[in-house]
Amino acid sequence: MDLVPALEEPLKQPLKSVLGPATAKVMAEHLGLETVGDLLHHYPRRYEERGQLTHLADLPMDEHVTVVAQVADARLHSFASSRAPRGKGQRLEVTITDGSGRLQLVFFGNGVHKPHKELLPGTRAMFAGKVSVFNSRLQLAHPAYELLRGDPEESVETWAGALIPIYPATAKLESWKIGKALQTVLPGAQDAVDPLPDSLREGRGLVSLPEALLKIHRPHTKADIEDARARLKWDEAFVLQVALARRRHTDAQLPAVPRVPLPDGLLTAFDDRLPFTLTDGQQKVSREIFEGLATAHPMHRLLQGEVGSGKTLVALRAMLAVVDAGGQAAMLAPTEVLAQQHHRSIVEMMGDLAEGGMLGGTEHATKVVLLTGSMGTAGRRQALLDLVTGEAGIVIGTHALIEDKVQFHDLGLVVVDEQHRFGVEQRDALRGKGKQPPHLLVMTATPIPRTVAMTVFGDLETSVLDQLPAGRSPIASHVVPAADKPHFLSRAWERVREEVENGHQAYVVCPRIGDEEDDPKKAAKQKSAEDEAEKRPPLAVLAVADQLAKGPLAGLRVEVLHGRMHPDDKDAVMRRFAAGETHVLVATTVIEVGVNVPNATAMVIMDADRFGVSQLHQLRGRVGRGSAPGLCLLVTEMPEASPARQRLNAVAATLDGFELSRIDLEQRREGDVLGQAQSGARTSLRVLAVIEDEEIIAEAREEATRLVANDPDLKTLPGLRTALNALLDEEREQYLEKG
């Protein structure tokens, strides 16, 4: 293991601290920065020029900001309060400006004296604090500030043109203090060992790592910043792609049993009975999967498809192929509702082919069993017996499949539905149940942009189903601004009644169940800053169902469905809804994936602004599944100019899941693309943006694949090994290991 001693040096140590102990402590606790190397890789978010002022009109609400501005005026007021009853309380109001917009600063009590002396009209300074609104005006209360004074040695031009790095900061540590700490450790950048091979760096005209670190923290020109960012983006993309390429290389060495279907077996019998022909997309994706199943090392494939594109059918054909070849297939679903739904629809699709060993079963039939945590003892015992003897070729279940008691006769394929709902450990435990590593097919209905697939799922081959089967209906989506136009909401309920009168059904989705208040701890926790700001908790299923049944939907059969109901009750509700006995189902996002009721044509999503873009797209995919057109109404009380409304307008404007996933990603930023370590402050991607930097990621993947093929252990590249070890701390290492 090659360590870089200068960069591995802790910022905080008992005998000698690189920084003051208090600063080092805040950096570790609030920014996750432990070593000199961590601090050097804490890059500026943006740069300000001393001579230019921040555009104050664009400041985000409720965020910690750093701005460069000029004092327009300062006024000291006296007031009476409980602490200073005789009018001795003091409040300093300072107005700062960028020449167009204005922002008010306010200081109270003893905190007024220093700023009153220093913040005189005409003074320029950096201010940091949280933006809030008081009396309809933007303000910063008690901001920290740093005066911008020209060095006596500097000319006015040099001083005015100097670039000030603005760092991701916290209320406990302002950007300029981080900047000063960086000046202390910057000489250590010379010791940074370059992870990029010389040939790659020189071939692409990239600066060395020490030079990039100097230029990103102390740029003289904007060209310096560009050089540094171009280089550091390559580092992030390349090191991550090398980690994934090594994972793919290791997988390719594992043995697996090739699974080739019999020429006239179960799969052929199933295909012969299909009442429709497969779409071109389904045929193409099936070919890719069958090729993977026929290899002697485990297939690892991601199948992504739009809501309703027929992924379940493709997965079922893959499972039948494995059963044909003498193996067993397991499908892992994230919820009991979904596992039961899959079991029901697969048994229906297979008919007597799912009655292996029973009277009426055909020659090629197998048994399809369900295994969930809430099953009765007898049913569970029989299911376990069917799996261990090989009687059941297909099992569908929740995480109950992972328990130690569950043994397979010969597990050949694991299908994971809605991959993002499963911890890596769960998938790994199921994969460990095969005599040899089984093949793996991961399905998601959340469309993933190509670059995200290359980074998040870079160890999986990808198949995309983007063609909807014939007979699917379009879905019209509209935003219902309940606060601005209450009559729009009344009309929404009229539309639901109209759909029911026409023989159809509807969903109403709410963000919350509504029985949480029984637990005082939970109720206290739920008051997030957002809830406080909006002065209203999210709407709840139980309350909304009650109001609708007594009010606008009186006379219709309204039922509720949520995750904390007993599984038998949930299944009974779903059966009644699927049979058309219930008109309106008021539910949480438990219906988000897999629920298939073709007669449901309308969906009203309450507090739609509380859901993510991809989640709204998923929910909307529950309607329009039959021949009648679908309708999705997004109800919100957010004002027209708010980012939340823009997000909802984007969802209403397109049915293209890939387009929406790009919007979603741009708004959320990437988080930690190695997925599990979302600590917020630290992310493996600091300068690389997976949407904008598509080209770099694709090129880095090619370079990494080539490099790992020639030198899997990276013997010739100690710097790259060091960078990999830094990226793959224990948590991420496990994540990649388990894929």
Explain what this protein looks like in three dimensions:
With 739 residues, the protein is an alpha/beta fold. The protein contains 27 helices and 21 strands. The strands form four sheets. Strands 11-12-10-13-14-9-15 form a seven-stranded parallel beta sheet, with helices on both faces. α21 links the parallel β18 and β19. The longest helix is centred in the first third of the chain and has 32 residues. The protein is globular, with a radius of gyration of 30 Å. It starts with a helix and ends with a helix. The relative contact order is 0.10.
Q: Quick one: how many beta strands? A: 21
Major sheet: 7 strands, parallel
Morphology call: globular
Round the Cα radius of gyration to an integer and report it.
30 Å
Give the fraction of residues assigned to helices: 25-40%
Counted by DSSP, the helix tally is: 27
Give the strand content.
15-25%
Low-confidence stretches are 1-5, 517-534, 669-683, 733-739
Helix-and-strand structural type: alpha/beta
User: Termini separation (Å)?
Assistant: 24 Å
The spatial strand order of the largest sheet comes to 11-12-10-13-14-9-15
Mean pLDDT: 81
So what's the oligomer here? single chain
Q: Descriptors for this entry?
A:
18% strand, alpha/beta, disordered C terminus, 739 residues, disordered N terminus, 39% helix, 7-stranded parallel beta sheet, 6-stranded parallel beta sheet
Précis, in short:
By secondary structure, this protein is an alpha/beta fold. The chain is 39% helix and 18% strand.
List the helices and strands and how they pair.
Blueprint: H1 5-8, H2 21-31, H3 36-40, E1 46-49, E2 64-79, E3 89-97, E4 102-108, H4 113-118, E5 124-134, E6 137-141, E7 144-147, H5 156-161, E8 163-166, H6 175-185, H7 198-203, H8 209-217, H9 222-253, H10 266-273, H11 280-293, E9 300-305, H12 311-324, E10 328-332, H13 336-350, E11 367-371, H14 377-389, E12 392-397, E13 411-417, H15 424-431, E14 439-444, H16 450-456, E15 461-465, E16 475-481, H17 486-501, E17 505-509, H18 520-525, H19 529-534, H20 541-550, E18 558-561, H21 567-578, E19 584-587, E20 600-605, H22 613-620, E21 630-636, H23 643-653, H24 657-668, H25 694-710, H26 718-727, H27 730-738
Parallel strand pairs: 4-6, 9-14, 9-15, 10-12, 10-13, 11-12, 13-14, 16-21, 17-19, 17-20, 18-19, 20-21
Antiparallel strand pairs: 1-8, 2-3, 2-5, 3-4, 5-6, 5-7
